[in-house]
From TrEMBL:
It comes from Streptomyces iranensis. CDD domains: fer2, PDR_like. GO terms for molecular function: 2 iron, 2 sulfur cluster binding; metal ion binding; oxidoreductase activity. Residues 4-108 form the FAD-binding FR-type domain. This is Ferredoxin. Keywords: 2Fe-2S, Flavoprotein, Iron, Iron-sulfur, Metal-binding, Oxidoreductase. PROSITE patterns: 2FE2S_FER_1 (PS00197), 2FE2S_FER_2 (PS51085), FAD_FR (PS51384).
Length: 337
């Protein structure tokens, strides 16, 4: 455990497999064979790399297997070096520092699910499809990618689940068009029949989507008329939907109740950096509002959320905030720190 109460350890790369061009899957184990912390579908792990930034990767193995964790990493040419480090330096027998797991994309119980993956966004959905199948839920997976060969785990999914899985390689069929699958459920009870897929898009369906930003935005747009909370998304890049930045130009008072401190958060300085500069230990990782590591309980004050983690309901409740990017809309914020 680290000071923040999260599991943190050095694990062994027990297996490394190329699961698609530029996608490597790593199986991690404890060097002494100890059990690893339990996790649930949707969880991700921090890789604390020797060089390069800390990066987050979804666990894509079997939650029942306590002896190992599995992740899959796409080499991102335009990334910040994390995936290149994984591809170039982590081989079987090497070690890597990890922290977590953490879950902001948990699978909630439902009778029907529609899973939507774009590219490497398939990783958190793999254990979700397995869990949905085991629970006897009615589910479908839409999985888009550049080419069939580039789509990690595609053959495995199609072989195992047959026509519950709809693969949409862009070079064969064009971009994955969500509209036919996500027509508002009140218009399509109980099922929507779309070309090549009977999607379980009816009342009570939950939609889980992970992939590149345009796909996430398309899902948000298509689900605009769905009941609140029907769509859950997982982002590994910050939102690009033009968050209000007015509060960034204003200072506000920050009260840390457990530390007994009253501070001022200056414009252009984050709450996280202000707290850290005052000597209060806080855990953080991405500093761009996507990983959830810095989530902090809010006791008073109106939060101006800028993260890509919390759902609309969680934002509206104002109970927690990501202090690396979110601020205060008013003059005073009180945190449980
Ligand atoms: S450090 Fe990742 S959300 Fe704040």
């Amino acid at each position: 455990m680290n000071p923040g109460g999260e599991y943190e350890d050095t694990l062994l790369v027990a297996r490394r497999e190329e699961v698609a061009p530029d996608v490597v899957a790593l199986t991690l184990r404890h060097p002494a064979g100890r059990d690893l912390p339990a996790w649930e579908p949707g969880a991700h792990l921090d890789l604390l790399l020797d060089t390069g930034p800390t990066r987050q990767y979804s666990l894509c193995g079997d939650p029942a297997d306590r002896a190992s964790w599995r992740i899959a990493v796409l080499r991102a040419p335009a990334g910040r070096g994390g995936s290149a480090h994984v591809h170039d330096t982590l081989t079987e027998g090497s070690t890597v520092r990890v922290r977590g797991p953490r879950n902001h994309f948990a699978l909630r119980p439902a009778a029907r699910y529609l899973f939507i993956a774009g590219g490497i966004g398939i990783t958190p959905l793999l254990p979700m499809t397995a869990a949905a199948e085991a629970a006897g839920a009615d589910w479908r997976l839409l999985y888009g990618g550049r080419t069939r060969a580039s789509m990690a785990f595609a053959d495995e999914l199609a072989d195992r689940h047959g026509d519950k899985v709809r693969l949409v390689p862009q070079d064969e069929e064009g971009l994955l068009d969500l509209a036919p699958y996500l027509t508002a459920p009140h218009l399509t009870a109980p099922y929507l029949t779309a070309p090549h897929l009977t999607a379980p898009a009816g009342p009570g369906t939950l939609v889980y989507c992970c992939g590149p930003e345009p796909l996430l935005q398309a899902a948000e747009e298509a689900c605009r008329d769905w009941p609140e909370g029907s769509l859950r998304t997982e982002r590994f890049q910050p939102r690009t939907d033009g968050a209000d930045t007015e509060s960034e130009s204003r200072a506000f008072e920050l009260v840390l109740t457990r530390s007994g401190l009253t501070l001022t958060v200056e414009p252009e300085r984050s709450v996280l950096r202000t707290v850290e500069a005052a000597g209060v230990p806080v855990l953080y990782s991405c500093e761009e509002g996507t990983c959830g590591t810095c989530e902090t309980d809010v006791l008073e004050g109106e939060v101006d959320h800028h993260d890509s983690v919390l759902t609309d309901e969680e934002r509206a409740s104002g109970e927690t905030m990501m202090i690396c990017v979110s601020r205060c809309s008013g003059p005073r914020l009180v945190l449980d720190l």
